[in-house]
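Weekly modeling sync, notes
Attendees: S.R. (lead), two postdocs, one rotation student

Agenda item 3: backlog of single-chain predictions. S.R. asked that every request posted to the team notebook include the full sequence so nobody has to chase files. The rotation student volunteered to paste the first one in as an example of the format we agreed on. Action items at the bottom.

Example entry:
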Amino acid sequence: MGERQQADGTGVADGPDGPAGTGGRTTVEWALGTARRWGRMLRADLGTFASDPLPPMSRLRFLRRLPHGVVIVLGTYLTFGSVFLLTIDYRLTLGLGTSLGILQSLALVMALWRPLPAWWLSLAVGFVTAEAVRSAPDSILLPGSQHQMPWPWTQASLAAHALVLLLLALRVPGRISAEALVLTALVTYAVEGLQGASVYSPTGLLAVVVFATVTLLGTALRGRRVARTQLVEQATLTAEERARRTVLEERSRIARELHDVVAHHMSVISIQAQVVPHLVENPSAELRENVEGIRGNALEALTELRRVLGVLRSEQPGTAYGLGSADGTAPDAPQPTLDDVETLVDNVRAAGLEVSTGVTGRRRPLPPGVELSAYRIVQEGLSNALRHAPGSRVTVELEHSPEGVRVRVVNSRPTRTAPPSPGAGHGLLGMRERTTMLGGTLIATVTPPGGFLVEAFLPGPADGAERDGRPGAAEESTDGAGGKTTGRGAGRATGRGSR
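Predicted structure, as returned to the notebook:
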């Protein structure tokens, strides 16, 4: 900050960038810079062909082009009206009046596809028309005329230019529409206020008011359309995000349950590795070292699984309808299997639903993940019947085959209206995710009598995967005392200690 001396000896304080208020530049330079910036902005806004499509007036296909037809009809009408007006009332030659009338209507029709060039053409035609009428040798605007005709905007040119401005405001941002309106008003003022004529009925003020009205109307309609479009897009994005989040939540729930299955196997591996040295006489040091390594790796894997479970099981929803937890079991409880279906059915019967069960085929050993998914599908089918079909009769069927297990839950038509459901509404999605994960199929549909059917097929292991073909013999482990227990019993015993 300093002070510089002017010619008269007075001091003027300098700002950090030069003279105060000008940033180190003179007022003329600042004005020129501002004018150049405005000129560049106007050239960029009013010199582009880009615009939004003309909005259809109806969702019906045969009415979608109605705005185009209306504008073309108006353009044709204005062509004949403008030619008649310019040649008869304003006494222009037939060739000049016809040319100006056709160009004015052409600008109106062109506004359907290129609104900004159409606006430039309409403004130019309006200006040329005003000058041609004013400078004609026998013009009615010269002294001695008996009639005072509208000028500088004739009736036809005012109507055509107003329609062009309306179409422009419907298809370009509001700033561009405002710039076009201001420039139109400046041209009108220059022709009528600065140049003028001798005898005429002024239409400049009326024209500016009409142009401003249609511009505001078009801008408001465009803003409403843009807001509605953005709202629809936001609603679509929200629905997609909600569906994506629902899928992730269901997959997370399935992962939390499958964690118990994996933890069971790792626990069995750890226990088996621990008892191996007791089953061998005089085990070698190498054998002990390898077995300890197996047990150590299993314990490390269990530790990592606990950490993963802590991330996945961030919340535990409560039990609904007596069917057990909707998001996995308690940390110290084993995951359910098909052997627990009867207990589940008893709980549902206690809730007031009539349920019958049926099992066909020879029970074969199934992977824990298949057993868990089959149980959850039955659970969700019964839960849906309780929520949405009160008073109905439900049939649960399990069909075992060498290829896997088929689960079928069907309920009859409800006898009374279902109350509002407190569920999240993700049951079908969860069943679909489970069957897809296991490579199975799912059918969920309304039955002709008015009930609902859920049928899923979950493939089991190949025949070679069965160890001896006996049900329940697929998993045999040894307890710490050296006695044998079935794989299911080991799962229940070790499932508690692995979490």
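Discussion: group reviewed the output briefly. The chain is about 55% helix and 10% strand.
Action items: rotation student to repeat for the remaining queue; S.R. to check formatting next week.
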